[in-house]
Amino acid sequence: MKVVHTDLAPAAIGPYSQAIVSGGFVFTAGQGGVDPATGELVSDSVVEQAEQVMRNLAAVLEAAGSSFEKAVKTTCFLADMGDFAAFNEVYGRYFTGRPARSCVAVKTLPKNMLCEVEVIAEA
């Protein structure tokens, strides 16, 4: 098992890793729309947060030796399912290989994020 860390994605805000590589797969922690330089949300727009989510995931996946193209499963969390279409438009530009996916609405996310995504990908 290998712990993954990159300064190009937000540091963990709890006792967990940005990602773990194990058994030939990368398991990322959920990434939100947090700017890694400031630790703050990039905006209150779901589109801008989703774009930052993807930048954060790209950095973590790259640090683990993987990429969006190697994603096999994602789990997406939305604070409001009314944001689904806008979120999905951003998501679709990055996950072009169409991995399996779950998308759920949750009551709240850390830092009052509007969206969060975690990925399982081939290493």
TrEMBL record:
A GO-annotated cellular component: cytosol
SUPFAM superfamilies: YjgF-like
Record InterPro entries: RidA, RutC-like_sf, YjgF/YER057c/UK114
CDD domains: YjgF_YER057c_UK114_family (cd00448)
Gene3D superfamilies for the chain: RutC-like
GO molecular function, one term: deaminase activity
Family: Belongs to the RutC family.
Name the record gives this protein: RidA family protein
Record organism: Candidatus Scatomorpha intestinavium
Lineage: Bacteria, Bacillati, Bacillota, Clostridia, Eubacteriales
